[in-house]
């Protein structure tokens, strides 16, 4: 049975380490904020200038002025601070983020990522994705294993415009977890969702991976 999006976020949250500074992309990665393991103290950062993001608010605790980079309402924590966009991107470009967890449309077997546009569809811009994959020490991607039409999203090469080349370190899909020890190595299958068999996984995966 495939993992739910919350279960995918929970799996990614297991990669957090105490003291980490972490940037969460929009979409599934935002759910990581609600899945931080007990005893792990991390600081979440958002490109729109918030340092110290809290989880999603309860209905009676919504403040429309407190939002993440995806314009979703979130909460403050004790110690939350606000900085300019220039300072926020300075943190990212300066290599001060330990980890970024992003969504994607496609990931290639060599670590390329495409997550910002589909040709022919209007987009408002790349946002901070290009800076994140270039400036953050480790990149984890959360995405569905196949698209709605059944096309593999973990591919030999990306068919969509790239956000970054050879930057993905771990991939968590609704079917499995893939990781590589360094950016010169191939991805290795690390875990499979309950009920997923290797034969079926290979059928829905275009990319080559080690077992």
UniProtKB/TrEMBL annotation:
Entry keyword annotation includes Ribonucleoprotein: no
InterPro entries cross-referenced by the UniProt entry: 3-oxoacid_CoA-transf_B, CoA_trans_fam_I, NagB/RpiA_transferase-like
SMART domains linked to this entry: CoA_trans
Gene3D superfamilies: Glutaconate Coenzyme A-transferase
Signal sequence extent: none
MF terms (GO), sorted A to Z: CoA-transferase activity
Keywords tagged on the record: Transferase
Highest taxon of the lineage: Bacteria
Family annotation (Pfam families): CoA_trans
Family: Belongs to the 3-oxoacid CoA-transferase subunit B family.
NCBIfam families for this protein: pcaJ_scoB_fam
Matches recorded under PANTHER family: KETOACID-COENZYME A TRANSFERASE (PTHR13707), SUCCINYL-COA:3-KETOACID COENZYME A TRANSFERASE SUBUNIT B-RELATED (PTHR13707:SF57)
Protein name per its UniProtKB record: CoA transferase subunit B
């Amino acid at each position: 049975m495939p993992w739910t999006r919350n279960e995918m976020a929970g799996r990614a949250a297991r990669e957090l380490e105490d003291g980490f500074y972490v940037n969460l992309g929009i979409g599934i990665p935002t759910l990581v904020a609600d899945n931080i393991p007990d005893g792990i103290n991390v600081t979440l950062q958002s490109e729109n200038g918030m340092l110290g993001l809290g989880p999603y608010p309860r209905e009676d605790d919504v403040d429309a002025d407190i939002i993440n980079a995806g314009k979703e309402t979130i909460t403050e924590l004790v110690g939350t601070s606000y900085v300019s966009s220039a300072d926020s991107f300075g943190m990212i470009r300066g290599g001060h983020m330990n980890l970024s967890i992003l969504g994607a449309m496609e990931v290639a077997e060599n670590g390329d990522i495409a997550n910002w546009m589909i040709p022919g569809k209007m987009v408002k811009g790349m946002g901070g994705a290009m800076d994140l994959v270039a400036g953050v020490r480790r990149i984890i991607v959360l995405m569905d294993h196949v698209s709605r039409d059944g096309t593999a999203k973990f591919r030999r090469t990306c068919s969509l415009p790239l956000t970054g080349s050879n930057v993905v370190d771990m991939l968590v899909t609704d079917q499995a977890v893939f990781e590589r020890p360094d950016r010169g190595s191939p991805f290795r299958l690390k875990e499979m969702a309950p009920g997923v068999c290797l034969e079926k996984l290979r059928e829905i995966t275009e990319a080559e991976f080690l077992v």
